[in-house]
Structure formats: structure tokens, C-alpha cells
UniProtKB/TrEMBL annotation:
Residues 400-427 form a coiled coil. Gene3D superfamilies: Galactose-binding domain-like. It comes from Symmachiella dynata. The keyword Lyase does not apply. This is Planctomycete cytochrome C. The lineage of its organism: Bacteria, Pseudomonadati, Planctomycetota, Planctomycetia, Planctomycetales.
Amino acid sequence: MTRLSFWIHAVLAAPLVLVGFSPLLLAADDPGDANAQKVFFQQKVAPILVGRCLECHGSEHKGELDLRSKATALKGGESGSVIEPGDVDSSLLYDYVVNEEMPPKKPLSDDEMAALKQWIESGAYFPSEPLNQFATSTDTRAGYDWWSLRPLAEVSPPTPDGIPAAWNENPIDRFVFAKLVEKQLQPSAPAQRRQLLRRITYDLIGLPPTPEEVDDFVNDDSPDAYERVVDRLLASPHYGEQWGRHWLDVIRFGESRGFERNEIINNAWPFRDYVIRSFNEDKPFDQMVLEHLAGDVIGEGDPDVEIATTFLVSGPYDDVGNQDAAQAAQIRANTIDEIIRATSEAFLGLTVGCSRCHNHKFDPVTQDDYYSLYATFAGVHHGVRVIATAEQKQQHAAALQPLQETQKQLEKQRGELENEINKRGEEKAADFESAWTREAVRRTGAEETFPPVPAKFIRLTVEGVDNNPQARTGYRIEEFEAWTAGPQSQNVAAAKNGGKATGRSRTAKDFDAYNAMQTIDGRFGARWIATGPELTIEFAEPQTIERVLFSSDRAGQAGSQTIATFVCEYRLSVSLDGETWTEVASTADRKPVSAAHRRKRLMDAVITAAEKKQLADLGRQLAEVRQQQSKIAPLPAWWAGTFSAANGPFHVFLGGSPQRPGRTVVPASLSTLSKVAREYQLSNKSPEGERRLSLAKWLIADDNPLPARVLANRLWHYHFGTGIVATPSDFGFMGVPPTHPQLLDWLARQLQENGWQLKPLHKQIVMSQAYRQSSTYREDFAKVDADSRYLWRFPPRRLTAEEIRDAMLMAGGKLDRRAGGPGFRLYRYLQDNVATYVPLDDFGPETYRRSVYHQNARASRIDLMTDFDSPDCAFATPRRSSTTSPLQALTLMNHKFTLDMAAALADRIGSELPDSPSPAAQVGRAFELCFCRAPTDDETNACSALVKQHGLPALCRVLLNSNEFIYLN
């Protein structure tokens, strides 16, 4: 069915009154009657103008022509007048249409041309209200009457003829069976019990059933056996881990910042735990929406609620920054755009972000709609926020206050003493400054010359860096040279000449360890980062030297933001034995690099011994106070966003550019749903939190049809592999129309009637015969419905990456079921301005937890899980891919994790069976643990032969690599 035919079908099937329908249509051919003209326009002309003309000649005014109202239409465009009422021959509009120049993509039909001709001849009637290009859906775009934007229909489950008794009990089955009858399909037989138990267990908790659970269910003849299994699984704490993972996919939750630096975020995991906890508690989803968008407002002082605002900032975040104001504004606009897209797609199933630069090309979403959301989220910033109870904050403040008062008094005393010394130094400044005859040290290099002196060692002792006169570490040196005296001078410090450099330096795991040898390796750009005050160079043999040169950025290409510090106060000393040192140069006669350095020099020159001791005592006391403060546990601070007042005015950005502000907007609901949902509009001075809360309340209002539809469809999607709408985050024109629109509305209403709790709807779905039928393939039905969208069988699916990994852990008896807390890592994290994520080769027990607790970083590869389509959380993933590639087979066969789990499974079987078990017994237990069934005789014989020849681990490896292990049917 094409989109147009679907829309026509939906319009005719829906219990709505068509706009403009009236008995007066009988008089539509009488152009002299005013009412007839109105009806004729509504019925014949408006669909042409709205559907074929206003896309270009509406709000966009192409050719400076606006056909939305009589005044603008008669005004004409850049070609002059286009409509002459009563004179069709003089009307340029009709001329363009007849000559098929307009519309450019598809000419009008003869009937449409005739309608336009009659309309112009009868006076070119226009209604008093301007036409809205979004008023009705066309074959090129959706309007306000698009199926997903209509109110939820009041539908009753059908009772199709010939429905089996079992399919007549659950309303869901009645909807499904009616569609099967319509498509001339039939349902499949019920699934076998082992098959059904494996399906429902993976579906609800993401793990396989145990052999004991399989036996209990297979041998339970009670009529409610399956229902009790469903209830048990819905009550399992693993339910929240499975379904929380689905939701984290939808809302693009990741634990690194993304973009160039992609730094890890170590304090976002409480949100993941919040999501899992909320699903386990069956928290009403409308409450979760409120908490996601405004948890800080409705739950201030309640960490379990406040943490939910991590949703707003759980997407990628560009933290590189830019000194250019225009670029900084663009980065900020991009940041808010990401929040708008995540919110609208997750809760509304609308691609609102497409309206950033212009009105949506396919859906009735305007630029004003987009920037109303922009105004709503303008105060949201990525970052860390203290989230604690009022009692925690009071206790923390009470513990800190006396220490802070003491610190304040000590700092005041020290400041007064330093000011007194500084004053004395300024009085004698001229005397000292007269000795500072040489230029200050520069980042690009410091050169010292001195009388030739014999040396086997030379040492740089740092006494200050550019941004801190007191600091003696943290500086960077890219190259250090020591030149011999005489006409054929050479750099005897260079590594190629035998020089050896030593000095404490920073390390960064597998990155270059910033070894001091970098300072004499002859390469500029690679910088040694010091953690000690000294750099010592040993020559290959004693030399007579007279010149030293060292730099932090000799080429002068790096800004101060890139290279944090350079040496600007130092002493150079030489030695022949490494024990006795002689100073040969220093910065004592150089000018200071800054006012702070000047101040320190003057202080050092005039300070008395008593003052030094007094300052040292004050420094020691301050250090003790700070140490006591450090022992007080800080308040918990999580990556949950920060919020600031943002009072506008807010503008539409023309073309999406912050540098081109257009008309003003205010925080408001989307006009997209104004026909069916209550609207709200706030002033730009409204509190920032009120804006987000108003949006959340509008989303969950009973008359807003989209959130309930979208959520019900998401549940269906994860149960059956494909939603009733196959594009779960796009219910617009470019999305896929629903296969069962009435069922979708019925499910959405059930969700609302159940108080937005998900577990009752889960149960309703999985208790249906549609869900419980087998996955047996039928070629004749597959020709009609290859993907079983109409559910003539249960659609088989491959396990997700997390399910595969967790199932391996469970089969091997290694699954660590500990819930919550900081995540584990399947990569080694390396960070030096930018982050690198290196997949692990070996996996310890600390990685044996459920995969949902993995610390997912953006753009990180995790071998087995990545190969099996675990998504990159840089983007929302409402629908996971399920690819097939050679790399999957290679990884599953050879990956160290698979080998470890195969060995663990073999060890488990060995420990569970009696001494000296037969290969057949081992094979049987392996099949139970991997496939939830016993092997056939042929399988037993073949696998026993394999065990005898290659050992039990080889068989376990084969089973973990089998299709039956990673597929559900």
C-alpha cells in the first residue's frame, strides 16, 4: 500500500468528520451561490493549493509568491500578478498550470485544471482565514490529520468469523486474527513448551531458563503453568536489567562525552541504575517522563528522582570549546539540538530536529515548534550536579563550616603578612629590577651561554613555571641541548651522541610514557611532562660546554591552551662526578615573565627569616585544615546536568544559524498536536524548571495521542522483533504505517487505563496466542508476508549481543548477578587530552557481570558485542540491526572470551556429573545448559565421538558457536 492509499484508507476508516463536508456540496457547481463557492473551494480548490502549491508558495514564499490568503495571492510575486478574479485568460497561475510548468514535479490532472479554471472564473473565492499548508495530508507530506496525530480511537476488539476458541479469549488475538483473515493467512500451531519457555525467559529477563526451570514447566500440567512463569519473570530483578537496556538504547545513554576528546564519564551510572530500578518497580511511565525532564523540580532533595535528569545530558557532548564567539554559539545550538531530537523521538516518535533550519519537509512541524523546544531546554547544561538529601547537605555543611572559618582566618593572616612584605619589596623594587637585564624566558626557547666549563652531567632545576610562580612540576620540555665549546660545537646532550636523560615524569599507561629521553631525542613536538623539579643529562664522556638551549614549543605553533606550562624560573648546574654541583646559569638576571613572578622575586628579596618562618607555619596550618576537609566525604555529585536561568528573548534561527536571528518564540507546546491536545505557552521569564515540567505534563496528558502510541509500539517491537509501526521513533510521513492501527490504539488506551504501568501490558501481550504460537516456516504464507508482520507465526530472532554474552556466562556458571553500582570495562581506557579505548584480550571475573552494567563508551569497540551489533551509543538506537557477517563467526569461534566460557562450561559439567561420566551423559548435560533440551540419538553419537577425540571443551566450544544457541524461535 502506498502512503497515499494508506492515508486515504485511514481517513475513510476513521470516525472523523471530513473537513468541509456539507450537503451544500450538491450546489457546488453553481458558481453564483456564495455558500456553493465556499464549498467548492473547500472540496475542489483547497486540496490543490494545500497539497500541490503551498509547499513552495506558502511560508517559504518562493518566487515571492504566497498563496495562503486572498490578499497575498492577489498581490502576486516576482513575476507580477498571478490571479485575475473572473478572468482566467489573464491569470498567470492558470497559464503555468495549463502549460505544465507548475507544479514542477507532477502536473495537475485535467479535473484539477478544470477546478482551478472554474474557481478563477467565479471570482477566486478565499476563506477569511489563511490556508494552512499542514491542514491536510497529501501524497507528499503529512498534515494535521495524519494517522498518528489523531486522537486515540475508541475501538473494540473485533470478533472475526471462524476464530478458534483459544484465539477468542485475549483481545489482542482477536485483532491479530482479523488481520490474518483479511490477508488470507492463518496462525500457526502453539509452540512447544521448551521453545516457549526459552522464548519468554529471554524476552522478559534476557537470560536462558535453567534446566530445572525447563523441567518444572514441561512437567506442570496445571492450566495456569505458563501464566505463573510470566508472573515469576516479571517479578524478577533481571526484568529491569533487560527492559532497562532497551530504554537506554532509545535514549542514547552513554558514559563518555563523544566528539574529539571522548573522555570517560565515571559518574553517570546512577541513572542506569535508576532506569533498571524504575522498570523493576513498574513505576508508571508517565511518572518516568516527568522525572526524566524535570526530576530536579518535582523531586528536589530526593536523589532517586533527581538523578533522572541525566536523560537530558546522556547524549554526546562537545566539550572541546571554541574561542570564536560565532563557533561557540553554534556548538551550543548543536548541544540543545541533540536534546530536542532525543526528547521528541523518544516520547513523541517525531523527527522534530528536521525543523531546525526550515519547516519540516514531510511532517506538520514548524520552525516555531522547534525553537519553542529550544527555549524550553535553553537552560540545560552538561555537567555534574550535587544530588543529595536535605539532611545530607545539612550534615555536610555542619562538618565543613568550622574548618572553612579556620581556613578563612589563616588565609587572611597570610594575606596581610604577604601584603606587608610586598609593600616593602615595592619600595626597593628599582634596586632589584636594575639587575634584571636580560629578556624574560619564552615558551619557544631559553638559551644560556656561560664561560666554558668541564662537565659529565648538567642539571636543570626548576623554581617556577609560567602560570604558577610556586610550582616546580607539571612543566613540559620538548628538547634540551648542551653545546660544546670551540669552532666545531656539537650537541652532546643528544641521544644520538650518547646523552642520557633522567627525571620524574608523568605516565599514561600504553601511551608514550613521557620518558625524559624525549627531551634529547632530536624530535620537536613530543614533550616530556615533568612530575619532579629536576632534569639531569649525562654525557657519554666528560665534555667542555658553554651553551644550553631548551624549549617547550620551539616552532611556536601551540597555544597556551595546548601546552599548559613552561619553565620560566630555573638554575643550571654542572658536575663531573654527579655528586658535587656548580651553578653556571640562572634566571636571576632575567626579567620575570609576569606580574606574579615579579611579585615573588621581590618578596624573596626582602623577606626576613622570621617572616619566612611565620609564612611556613601558616602554610602548614592551612595544609592541615585542608587535609581535615579532605577527610570529610564530599556530597555525591553525578552527571545529571546543571540548570541556569535563560530568559531570552529566543528567536528562530534562520537557516539554523545562531548568527541569523529571526522572529521571536516562547516555550510552548507543538502546534503539530494543537487540534487534539491541550496547548500551553509560557513567557520567556518563566522559571527554567517550569518550562521542562510543562513540556513533560503536556507529553503525558490524556489527550496527547503520541506518547502512549509510541510506548505501546515499543513494547510490541521488543516482544515480536518489529513494532506495529516498524519505525519506532518515527511515526511521521517517512515512517512505516502501522500494520494493525486499531490494535495499536487499543494497546495505547490499555496503557493509559493501567496507569501507564508496563507490566500489565507485557502480560497481556505474552499471554496472547499470537505470542505463544510456533515459528514454523510456511512458504505459501511467506510469499504474502515474508517477515510475518501480520503474525502468522512467531518471528524468529537472533539474540542481542548482551544476551549472547550473558548466556555464555550463565552456561559456564560464571555469571555474576550483582546489580548496580559502577560499571565494569571490556576495554582499557587510555587518556591524554583525547581518549582511546583498547579492547581487552583477557577477561577477569570482574567482567562477568550482566552486560547492562558495562561502562558503555562512545566509539569504543568491544569485539564480540560490537560484532553482534551492540550499537554505538553516540546515537539513539530504537531498533537494533541484526547483521550477518564472517567476522561474527570468526569472533565467536576464536575470541578469548568464547574459549574461556567453553572451558568453564566443560568444568561445570565435570563438577555436576558423577565421577567418570560417560561422554553421552556429558553431551546430554551440555545440551540442557545450552539449548534447554536433550540431544537426539544422532546428536549424542556425533558429539560423543567429538568428546572422545578432542575433549569436552571442544564440544562446549561447538555448542556456543551453534545457531541454536544464539537464535530464538
